User: Fold this.
Amino acid sequence: MRQISYREAIREALAEEMARDEQVVLMGEDVGCYGGCFSVTSGLIDIYGPHQVIETPVSEEGIVAVAVGAAIMGMRPVVEVMYGDFSTLASDPLINHAAKTRFMSGGRQSVPMVYRTPMGSGTGAAAQHTQSLETLFTNIPGLKVIYPCTPSDAKGLLKSAIRCDDPVVFLEHKNYGLSSLIPEEDYTIEIGKADVKRKGSDLTIITYGKMVSHALSAALTLEDDEISTEVVDLRTLRPLDTEAIRASVKKTGRAVILHEGPAFGGFSGEIAAAIVEDEDTFRALKGPVKRIGGQEIPTPFNKNLEMQMAPQVSQIISMSLSLFT
Amino acid sequence: MPYPFDPGTRKNVLALMIRSRVFEQKIEELFTNHSMHGTTHLAIGQEAVHAGVALGLEQRDWIMTTHRCHGHTLARGADLSAMMAEFFGDSRGLSRGLGGSMHLIDMEHRNAGSSAVVGSSVALATGMALQLKRQRRDEVVVAFFGDGASNRGIIHESMNMASIWNLPVLFLCEHNGYGMSSPAHRMVSVSSIAERGAGYGIESDSIDGNDVQEVYSKVREIRQWMMGNQRPYLLEVKTYRFSGHSKSDKRVYRTREEEAQWMKKDPIEAFSRVLIDEKEITEEEISDLFEQERAQITEIADFFLHDHRELTLQEAEKYVYASGGDR
Assistant:
């Protein structure tokens, strides 16, 4: 095992897959000598050259659509879009084309591509560079949606996404410096499998992306109140690992669902449904299912206001405690 | 004309155009009498483009077409039964009945399909060309679009990328005068869309899209030029759809006089006159061609009217993901 950052883990996955298969092509704005907006792709163009690292104009819709067309012809493009907010521009090629090509061709075409983009606030970039827009994609059959938190999961899941014959939306958080241990050997992680990041018996926090770290911090504090908290990191949102969610909630009887974007219309609703739609899990509940999401306003620029946008650890703790009164 | 049709082949070209016309007339009839479900976009009147482009390309070349895709698909050589089956939603269709009239995909004949999001297929075709160039393949992609689609931002992005990356994509604008009901003279900033090529440093030209010999020759010439210069190209072909935009179109936005003027330039009649004048075919033989094509297509349509097969929802679900059933 060795310690690397989220950024390095993603870069390693890209590098290893590009070395393994020359059809794996990285495309995006400033992904060459600049190294991408968040320095994820630094140095890759020096190793793999312009044949596998294609720097593109500012044309988000165009880049993603070009990747779809190239994928139909056998390329395995990995497109980087520098902010998840620009997914609005990329939504036509992803939603209307990539997701439907295999189906509308009766299985005669496939689109083996990955759409990589970072989501979330905390960067002082105001309302158009800080959203969490995963629900743009989770309701679309034909897409797979991944949102890992740890370096180890990011590397293993990105490698699986690149090898997958379906279009995959791969969301990243912006805490690119977050570091942890990863295996030395070549490995992949199966898409669609949640991971229990902390075992517990009294309460389950179900979350994904950057909020996994918040959930783990909250769990540590809850220990002081003798509450044993299990943290389920979904890692993949579509397909959703409902079995893992239900298994944990059946054990603990209490569920708090947590994500960075607003709860209203958010993915937490889908997770709550996965809990209450199952007879056994529903009967195991000892209290209401609780959701925690971000503030229901566009992200303010002001630093103190922005820091209150995403769910706070203190909020998670108090919401959790409320289930025990 | 630098590339005339090979001697003796022109009768087959006329037959191909007639097949396209008769096929679409049959589709119109089947939609009108409610034998078919949904909607359809006919290109009756644009047959010189279908045949001229398809024959001007090499077999190894690719096309990506539009929601108005029947003629291009047919001219590229698609199996007529598989096409007809697709219109009926039949599991023996080109896309197993999952795509329908606007999404005819025929990879065997290097037709990568079409987008029904007007103009979006142009970017997909540009991506196909990127992969062809990476693989150093001696092939081009034709990206069809219409005058209506020409105003989409994605076409601007695509042409810019094709130009900076020197991609083998032929942007082919079928200028038929109308985007649904909207006339190009009110919606398009230039009288000839070919003028827009200059904005991207892309060579371009505009020709008569109702003259099959001109379309064929020009496409052959451009293909040679693209290979030699490793550059994209923008070709506008001016034509007219005799049919309405889609099934429900009453054509209230244009006059019967205007339609009559264009009918005089019917591409099939124009080419027929040339062949009759040059004694390659007789009026009678042309009538026979129409009869033969009608008989063949009617037989195919009748077959699928009476022998329908379709996927179950469970079978259709297998085509959502590569793993077949995974969701």
About this structure: The interface with chain B takes residues 25, 51, 54, 56-57, 59, 61-63, 65-75, 92-93, 96-97, 101-110, 112, 141-142, 144, 164-166, 192, 239 of chain A (CB under 8 Å). The domain at 195-322 of chain A is CATH 3.40.50.920 (Rossmann fold).
